[in-house]
Amino acid sequence: MSAPATGQDPHGVVADRLHRDGQRYTRGRRALVTVLLGAGRPLTIAELLRADEGWSQSSVYRNLGVLEACGVVDRLPAADGVARFEVTEELSRHHHHLVCAGCGRLDDVDLPARVEATLHAVTAEAGEALGYEVDEHRLELIGRCPDCR
């Protein structure tokens, strides 16, 4: 499990966010966050259900909705129309995604620091050209995974 960008315990951050929104950090939500933190890539509902056979599909959907609403989980659409879920970068680390145009698979990718610095400069320049102040950036690389090649 990676520590959030703030250096705090990710579960402490999640508990605070949920409490702020009038929600409880239940055992099921904690287990869901633990699976997402340890996955290393965005997961589908089916993959989450395989991670714990005791979970029902309705409770996974319901808990993901609560976690998404309080800013703990991001829903990522994919080329195959199946959403993937991951914890927010604040709870994990800054990264980008490789997206398979064939099957919809999403994988996390970390770019070298020099590339990140260049991306930051380019996005800031693009934003300034239109009067924006860019706070962050996200990059999706689209291609074919090893299975679809």
Describe the overall structure.
By secondary structure, the protein is of the alpha+beta class. It has two domains: 1-92, Winged helix-like DNA-binding domain superfamily/Winged helix DNA-binding domain (Arc Repressor Mutant, subunit A, Orthogonal Bundle), CATH 1.10.10.10; 94-149, 2-Layer Sandwich (Dna Ligase, domain 1). It is built from five helices and five strands. It has helices at 10-20, 27-39, 45-51, 57-69, 113-129; strands at residues 73-76, 84-87, 96-100, 106-109, 140-143. The strands form two sheets. It has a three-stranded mixed β-sheet with strand order 4-3-5, with no helix packed on it. It has a two-stranded antiparallel ribbon with strand order 1-2. Strand 3 (96-100) and strand 4 form a beta hairpin. The longest helix is centred in the C-terminal third of the chain and has 17 residues, at 113-129. 18% of the residues are buried. The mean pLDDT is 89.
Task: Name the descriptors.
Dna Ligase, domain 1, single chain, alpha+beta, 2 domains, 149 residues, three-stranded mixed β-sheet, Arc Repressor Mutant, subunit A
Outline of the structure:
This protein has helices at residues 10-20, 27-39, 45-51, 57-69, 113-129; strands at residues 73-76, 84-87, 96-100, 106-109, 140-143. The protein is α+β, with helices and mostly antiparallel strands.
The DSSP helix count reads 5
Distance between the termini: 31 Å
Coarse structural class: alpha+beta
CATH-wise, what's the superfamily of the largest domain?
Winged helix-like DNA-binding domain superfamily/Winged helix DNA-binding domain
**Approximately how much beta-strand content do the residues carry?**
5-15%
Main beta-sheet annotation = 3 strands, mixed
Give the strand tally: 5
CATH class of the largest domain: Mainly Alpha
Q: Architecture of the largest domain, CATH level 2?
A: Orthogonal Bundle
The largest sheet has its strands arranged as 4-3-5
The outline comes out as globular
Spans of at least 5 consecutive residues with low confidence: none
| Fraction of residues in helix | 40-55%
Q: Return the average pLDDT rounded to an integer.
A: 89
Using only CA atoms, what is the Rg?
17 Å
